Amino acid sequence: MSARSWFSPAAERLRTANPYVVDSALATLVLFAVSLQWIFPDEGDDRLTWQGWLIGAATAVPLVWRRRAPFVTACAVSVATPVQAVYHAPPPDVMYGGMVVLYTMAALGRPWQRRAMLVGWLVGVSLTMMHKEEPQPFEYAFHLLSVVCAYGFGVLARVQRAYTSELEDRARRLERERAADTARAIAQERSRIARDMHDVLAHAVSLMVVQAEAGPVVMRSDPARAEAAFDAIAGAGRDAMAQLRRILGVLKEPRGDGGAWRLPQPGVAELPGLVRRVGDSTGLRVELSGSGTPRPLPPDTEVAAFRVVQEALTNTVKHARATSATVELDWTEDELTLTVTDDGRGPGSGDGGHGLIGIRERAAACGGSARAGRGPEGGFRVVVRLPAAVDREAALG
Prior knowledge:
Distance between the termini: 58 Å
Number of strands: 5
Strand order of the largest sheet: 1-2-3-5-4
Helix content: 55-70%
GO molecular function: kinase activity
InterPro entries: DUF7134, HATPase_C_sf, HATPase_dom, Sensor_HK_TwoCompSys, Sig_transdc_His_kin_sub3_dim/P
Keywords: ATP-binding, Kinase, Nucleotide-binding, Phosphoprotein, Transferase, Two-component regulatory system
Largest sheet: 5 strands, mixed
Protein name: histidine kinase
Shape: rod-shaped
Strand content: 5-15%
Pfam families: DUF7134, HATPase_c, HisKA_3
C-alpha cells in the first residue's frame, strides 16, 4: 500500500472524528512533550520545580478546547508560555503549545484575531528571548521561524478548507441545477406527449364520431355509403393506434435503440395525406395550397406544423359545422405561415378549447406565434407563423 493511499483515509477519519477526542489526544501529547525534562531529569542541568511543571501544563491543557473556543485557548497558552520562560524552571526549549494555538488561530480565527496573535507572538518571543541567559542568535531564528511556520501551516489549512467547501458547495449547486434541468425536461416531455396524444385522439375521435353519426342515417337508403363510413371509422382508429404506439414508444424505449415503434414523426410532407383523409372521412371539402419555396425545418417545427393543421381541421369538424376548409402554406426565407380557414359558424360557436391552447403552445415552443379568430369572409381562421431557420437560437432571438 502506498503512503498516499494510506494517508488519505487516515486524514479523512481524523477530520470526521469527535473533536473532543482528537483535541484531548493532542493536549496529552503536548503535555507529554513539556514533561520530558521531569521524566528524564538527568538529561540536563536545568532547575526543575513542581511550579514549573504546572506552568508547562498550562501551555498544554487548554488545547482540549482549541476548536470550541480558539481565541480564549490561544490567549491562555500565550500567557502561560512567556511565564514559563521567565520563571525558568525549566525554560521552554520548544513552544509546543504555542505552535498548536498559532496553527489553530490561523486556521479558525477571525481576521483581527489572526493578525493580533501573530504579531503578539513575534513580539513576545523577541522580548522573552532577552530574559534568557546568554541567548544564541540561532535560538532567535529557531523560535521566530517556529512561530511563522506554525502560522503558515494554519493559513494553508484554512485555504484548503475554504477551497474544499467551495468545491462541495459547487457540486451541490450543480446537482440541484441538474435535478432542476431534469425536472424541466421531464415536464416538457410530458407536455409534448400530452399535446401529441390530445391531437391524435381528438382528430381520430372527431372523424369517428362524424362517421358513426352518418352511418345509421344511410344504412337503409345507401348501404354502400354506410359501409364506407364504417371503413372510415376503422381507418381512423387504426391510424390513431399507429400514432399512439409511435408516441408511447418514446416512453418505452431508450434513445437511439432503433425500436420498431420509433417511426419518423409526421411533418409538412404528410399534410396532403392528412387533408385527403379528413376529406374522405367527413365529406368536408378541404383544399391544400402553397406559395413560395419550401425549405428545411427543424424536426420539432416539422411536427408542430403537422399537428397545428391537424388540430385546426379537428376543430373545424367538431365545432364549425363547415362545408369546406382551406389550408395554405406560405413559405418565405425566414418562416412558414400556416393558414387554416373554414366557412363555418365562426368563433361564436366554439373556440376549440384546449385545441387552440395547444396550437399556441406548439407555435411558442418553436419560436413562432399563433392567432385565431373570424375569417375575412366569415367562418373561422387560424394563422400560425413558424420559423424556418434551422438555427433555433436565431429563431428564438
